[in-house]
Amino acid sequence: MDIPILVLLVIALALLFDFFNGFNDAANAIATVVVTRTLTPGQAVLMAGAANFVGFFTFGLAIAKTVGKGIIQIDHVTLPLVLAALVGAIIWDILAWRLALPTSSSHALIGGLVGAGIAAAGFNVVIWHGVLRIVMFIFIAPLMGMIGAMLFTTIIFWLFRNADYTKSKGVFKSLQLVSSFIYSIGHGTNDAQKTMGIIALALFTGGITKTFILPDWVVLSCYTAISLGTAFGGWRIVKTMGTQITKIRAREGFCAETTAAFVLLATAHFGIPVST
Q1: The pTM is what?
Q2: What is the pLDDT of residue 180?
Q3: What's the pLDDT tens digit per position in 112-164?
Q4: Counting Cβ atoms within 10 Å, is residue 14 exposed (0-12), middle (13-18) or buried (19+)?
């Protein structure tokens, strides 16, 4: 079957978006392990790239289905609509990278879909209860992370209240390697699936598939793209997140990453797109 040029263009742009997502958002995921000097930026980026790919073997595809079928009524989706959403999100990603801003590629894509849908077919094509759930978690997810990290850090501090920090630092650096790896798995699981949903939507809209499905090659290519993006960079954003927002040590870094990983994996399980 011949694939229409516009479908190929959407797939190419979606994978480019996925690459920039890894280039941008994954840097946010590894900032703590860099600032605590547990890993160098190069080591952290390579570790995150490998962890992103692990999500391919471990978690479901609930978020991909949310993005593909839970934001815009699928029978009103056109290829130009998907293309417009992607272009808007990619432009924002590039701008954020140039300005070293730690922003959310995920929410840029969701906003692009909603905006393109309204422009193309009006407000009625938007699945507002699905959008509302995503918008709610823009605020709920950071609160979950903040409150969870406060509680977890308090518990860790109490458990190690009599320990010499210099002696325990090595333990927490080792633990932080594990927490950072799991956090990056959560990032890959959450963010790569958004691109999968877009490509599956393009395949269905372009008549390549008869139903909304996620072929294995789509899943594999999206995880590969985000892993490559992670491996190639995000250095300036790592610096911003790791040195200009807050100063933390390995103990606090472990607590922050562990709590954030839990939030990412929990929302991925329930199909809620959030930002790292």
Answers
A1: 0.82
A2: 85
A3: 899 999 998 889 999 999 999 988 988 898 899 899 999 999 999 898 888 77
A4: buried
Cite the DSSP H helix spans in 103-215. 105-121, 128-159, 165-205
Q: Residue 170 has what pLDDT?
A: 80
Long-range contacts: 218-224, Cβ < 8 Å, 24+?
A: 219/56, 219/61, 220/56, 221/15, 222/14, 222/15, 222/18, 222/192, 222/193, 222/195, 222/196, 223/52, 223/53, 223/55, 223/56, 223/188, 223/192, 224/53
Q: Which residues of the chain have pLDDT under 50?
A: none
Query: Helices H, strands E: what count in the chain?
Result: 10, 0
Output the pLDDT for position 144.
92
What per-residue confidence (pLDDT) applies to 198? 92
Q: Is 201 exposed, middle or buried (0-12, 13-18, 19+ CB in 10 A)?
A: buried
For tokens 């797109």, what's the residue? 273
Alpha-carbon distances of 169 from 94, 109, 165, 251, rounded to whole Å: 37, 39, 6, 7
Half-sphere exposure of 196 (CA within 13 A, CB side): 30
The residue assigned the tokens 């959030």 is 274
- Phi first, then psi, for residue 271 (nearest 5°) are 75, 30
